[in-house]
Amino acid sequence: MKKKKKHGSAVKENGMADLRERLLKESMEAAKKKAESEAKEEKVKEEAETDEAVKAENEAGDETTEAEKVEGTVENTDEAAEASENNNSELPTDEGPTSTFIKGEHDKKDEKIKELNDRLLRNLAEFENFRKRTDKEKSQMFEMGAKSIVEKILPAIDSFELGMAAMSEEDKASGVGQGMEKIYKQLMTILEGAGVKQIEALGKEFDPNLHNAVMHEENEEFGENIVSQELQKGYMYNDSVIRHSMVKVAN
């Protein structure tokens, strides 16, 4: 029942992670659509304002033409024309308000595009960080679950080893003894394939990261600080220790 609950919890966590990822994608798509809509509305507004400016300029030109026609009917047309030419030569060249207006609108449009692009890049960076963090959490959860299962299997392995060690040669040669040995070897092969391996202890230098010294003895056959006897086997899962080897160390 506990295994099923843990499995259900892991499935639920994965579902929540998928939901968060899907919500983030939908939020990014909504932001992108909103940005495109705002840019389109801004463009329509700019075109309308530009048309109004051009229309106003054309109307001003029409009024000037009408004024010139009226002046043509007045007496002393030559003098009026000459005076008009002199006045026009003194006036500075007018490039018109339209060019300045369009330039300012283009600058505003470029700033808006740059702002939307920066916002999109930030959203993509946040999504990439979320994906990496989720993958790391999944890996850690899987490793914790695997280590928990192996820890529960180790006592059964210890019992197998104690039972086989207590058997006589005659019992080992019997069908029951051979069956137990085959089951033990099969179990160890499965664990090794899953990344579980025994910690080497006997005859090795004592390492507090791998061994747990519970006894010391004077033994000339072994060097100083060398494991002289393994009282209980230790195991590792990948690069992490599941259970330290219980050993006796020679002084």
Shape descriptor = elongated
Note the beta-strand portion: 5-15%
* Number of separate domains: 2
Q: From the helix content, strand content and strand pairing, which structural class follows?
A: mainly alpha
SS element count, helices: 5
What is the H/E string?
Answer: HHHHHEEEEEE
Strand order of the largest sheet: 1-4-5
- How many strands in all? 6
Q: How much is the radius of gyration in Å?
A: 44 Å
End-to-end separation in angstroms reads 48 Å
Low-confidence stretches: 1-7, 70-75
Main sheet makeup:
3 strands, antiparallel
Mean pLDDT across all amino acids? 77
What helical percentage do the residues reach? over 70%
Q: Short summary of the structure?
A:
Helix 1 runs antiparallel to helix 3 (97-166) and helix 3 packs antiparallel against helix 5. The chain is mainly alpha-helical and 251 residues long. The protein has 5 helices and 6 strands.
